[in-house]
Amino acid sequence: MKIIKVSDEKLSLRRTIESGTEKQQQAVKTIIEQVKALGDQAVLSYTKQFDGAELTSLKVTQDEIENAYEQLDDELISIIREAAKNIYNFHEKQKRNSWIDFDENGTMLGQKITPLDCVGVYVPGGTAAYPSSVLMNVMPAKVAGVQRIALTSPPNEKGELSPGVLVAANEAGVTEVYKAGGAQAIAALAYGTETITPVDKIVGPGNIYVALAKRAVFGLVDIDMIAGPSEIVILADDSARANEVAADLLSQAEHDPMATSILVTTSIVVAENVQREVKRQLQSLPRKNIAALSIEQYGKIYVTETMEQAVRIVNELAPEHLEILTEHPEECLAKIKHAGAIFLGRYSSEPVGDYFAGPNHVLPTNGTARFSSPLNVDDFVKKSSIISYSKEAFLANAEKITKLARYEGLEAHARAVESRLK
Amino acid sequence: MKIIKVSDEKLSLRRTIESGTEKQQQAVKTIIEQVKALGDQAVLSYTKQFDGAELTSLKVTQDEIENAYEQLDDELISIIREAAKNIYNFHEKQKRNSWIDFDENGTMLGQKITPLDCVGVYVPGGTAAYPSSVLMNVMPAKVAGVQRIALTSPPNEKGELSPGVLVAANEAGVTEVYKAGGAQAIAALAYGTETITPVDKIVGPGNIYVALAKRAVFGLVDIDMIAGPSEIVILADDSARANEVAADLLSQAEHDPMATSILVTTSIVVAENVQREVKRQLQSLPRKNIAALSIEQYGKIYVTETMEQAVRIVNELAPEHLEILTEHPEECLAKIKHAGAIFLGRYSSEPVGDYFAGPNHVLPTNGTARFSSPLNVDDFVKKSSIISYSKEAFLANAEKITKLARYEGLEAHARAVESRLK
């Protein structure tokens, strides 16, 4: 990792919009059109083509789910349950009430909160089949009160889904599970097929084809943010332990050669020790090649003279994950403006949040923490305004409303008001 | 308007995603590339080409704003101020606190709420220059605490913006105003130019070029939903007055030939009287041609046998605006699942909400009320999770976390946790 003494350069994680190649865009367009036109048949045919699985039905059966439980050891199942409970409990605190506000003149204005009817959750397959990701995407929908939660994931060549994914889906309260991946799965969720009833919103990470398909159906259904490669920024003073800092940086780097791990510290000693530790720990990692590539390409250590400078850098980077490893981490908290999740102190290592603590691990990447939030209960409800105007308020304000309407050239608006005055 | 006795057909306002023609898409792509490459120069050149205005600077001066005040009558200014105050007051009730939750073992989990740094508001020009729209888009950002609010709108041939827009912008607390429209304005807000510092989110309605440009920059910045044509559904029983119902339907129809006005009623008498009234009132409207086209193409009256059927239709349509004109409108409220704004009773005619009551008039269109909300304060803040795990909680759960990490094949995650156990 390169150590950089911080200058006044403007830093940014913000890269470009992932829009794929012309060929990928065209492929996704064709897949969506085929699924719209041919339904299940198209999805089954793409599943054979891309996943190598010959299926007769897209739907996962109760038997398959029961079978999945038998393939996992009991301890793991009970850990999944405990994680699910923690995630549920945290997200429950995000729930909001509908409210109404009363004016003495009799007018009532308010906001009604209603869960979405149905949501689709995409779960990547292959080596990236993560039960934790299932829990994190499904539980907020469950807490929100979504009745129908459809999960879809690409099968392996034998036509099976990962048992961990199936168990997590069942524990999280998914109501239906499908074997479909890629753009064809997104199209099926958005437009529906004979087997899959269309949903109102699609969440969950995926490869470039999934991302392009989500972008293409956005508007017909809602989508979550399109996730980029993962990143961590660690803010440390001289109290931080280099071996722990290095281990946390590497836990990010092992995800993806495109992942970014950055240390920002006021201590040149910590910087140098972390640099050494990263090199040392890297050697024995099973995913050494991935992590090494990530560290080499995107890993950086910024050394600043003051904590203010360090915090400024953090805000410019707007990281997905931020660990604060300083003597008094709470002191920085008020100054952090942009970060997906903030981990305070050495016992809040990122994996604690990735798996278990309760807050969501679906977080804004690529500097989008400037304007995006962790996946949360609000993503699975919508609001409706309530307007109950009293006669008194109406009569007092009718003339003002008609004047504004007429200034905007909308005569019928003015007359709608005046029809009540007759 | 056609009267339809309701069958069991599945109704939907959901049309297709507005994706423009190939030519429009290409034009937008080119414009964005040019603005990225050439900045102000490209924006100025497109402004000459599309708006016919030769500008030397994009920025509206303080003089121009003061001049706008002189062009509006004082009464109108004071109405704009009162509307702004009402909108501010309603949206203030949407504000949420950051929160933190304490566990007895010392763990603290929470959610920090932070306003976005900077937001861009697009305001259409020409005949559709609406001060009310400025207030509705800007006030929630103001309430949220956004420091920089940049408004942009296409100038007329003389290089001027509408005085109503300028006054509303100033009253709402916009911090900078630019003369730029179309895709070039969206590109300038997203990528920045010499004059315009890039923003984090872009809101506001626009034509197809604006919509395509917003879709193209989505991800680099956040955007609000892409607005479609406006719609109203009125739910009425035999207590509704036909002339008021008709006037409200027409106030929607005058917006746009693509606007949709639908009456759902349990009363055939009301249905027939409204049909007659719409025809009659239409004759004398200044925007008669637009409204007639809208009514002819999209206007419908559904007559149902029961109120339950009527409510089911409303939920299937998921309208942007819903007026409930029944004897006891509150009784239906619990059953309405999908609607952008719900207007209760005859004194809550839609224009009351469009202009004055306080709730936002930027609402989900085209059936997207199934999953989208009125523009609100949440759209201008983001959340960050806070995770402060205690030593006690960490030691109690470390093994579970490492087991999950290893099941997912993420060894470095497990080792990050274990580095704290040494």
TrEMBL record, chains A, B:
Pathway named in the protein's UniProt entry: Amino-acid biosynthesis; L-histidine biosynthesis; L-histidine from 5-phospho-alpha-D-ribose 1-diphosphate: step 9/9
Pfam families in the record: Histidinol_dh (PF00815)
Coiled-coil stretches: 55-82
GO MF annotation list: histidinol dehydrogenase activity
Swiss-Prot/TrEMBL cofactor(s): Zn(2+)
InterPro entries xref list: Ald_DH/histidinol_DH, Histidinol_DH_CS, Histidinol_DH_monofunct, Hstdl_DH
Binding residue positions for substrate: 230, 252, 255, 321, 354, 408, 413
EC number(s) on file: 1.1.1.23
Cofactor stoichiometry and binding remark: Binds 1 zinc ion per subunit.
Keyword Transferase: no
Swiss-Prot/TrEMBL keywords: Amino-acid biosynthesis, Coiled coil, Histidine biosynthesis, Metal-binding, NAD, Oxidoreductase, Zinc
Positions that bind NAD(+): 122, 184, 207
Enzyme class of the recorded protein, top EC level: oxidoreductase
Catalytic activity line of the entry: L-histidinol + 2 NAD(+) + H2O = L-histidine + 2 NADH + 3 H(+)
Binding site for Zn(2+): 252, 255, 354, 413
Active-site residues from the entry: 320 (proton acceptor), 321 (proton acceptor)
Function text: Catalyzes the sequential NAD-dependent oxidations of L-histidinol to L-histidinaldehyde and then to L-histidine.
Family that this chain belongs to: Belongs to the histidinol dehydrogenase family.
Full protein name: Histidinol dehydrogenase
Species of origin: Aeribacillus alveayuensis
